[in-house]
Amino acid sequence: MPHVLRKWLGTLIDEKEAFNLYQKAADLGNSNRINNLGQCHSYSIGTEADLGNVYGISSLGDCYYNGIGTYFSKQKAFESYLMAANLDDDYAQYNVANMYKIGDGVKKDLNLAIYWYNKSAGQGYLVAQNKLYELS
């Protein structure tokens, strides 16, 4: 059924419902659906990130960074975090700063790290405020 909802086989496309059905089957241990669920995460199909939810986009970054439900990719993690950071998510801004600070999946750039720590700290994210204090 999820394939029908995703592949237009005689029904309207409903990627969110397909994602939910993949999740239910994966929860029951269906290895093929676990794979499909990972693909949904990989391509943001039917997920909160796909719907433009800033927290979903940031969470997708966590999935890529830690290889949760999808393949491990620091580059994809950075792209997701940066997208959410540009939408003013303080947590994503902090993660972008960390990645720039140590060159994790992106070229090391302390100036950009400080810029993103400032953006995050300016929104009240205490961990970012502490990082700025450490860097001063």
UniProtKB/TrEMBL annotation:
Pfam family, one: Sel1
Highest taxon, organism lineage: Eukaryota
Protein name: Uncharacterized protein
Annotated PANTHER family: ACTIVATOR OF C KINASE PROTEIN 1-RELATED, CHITIN SYNTHASE REGULATORY FACTOR 2-RELATED
Coiled-coil positions: none
UniProt-listed InterPro entries: Mitotic_Regulator (IPR052945), Sel1-like (IPR006597), TPR-like_helical_dom_sf (IPR011990)
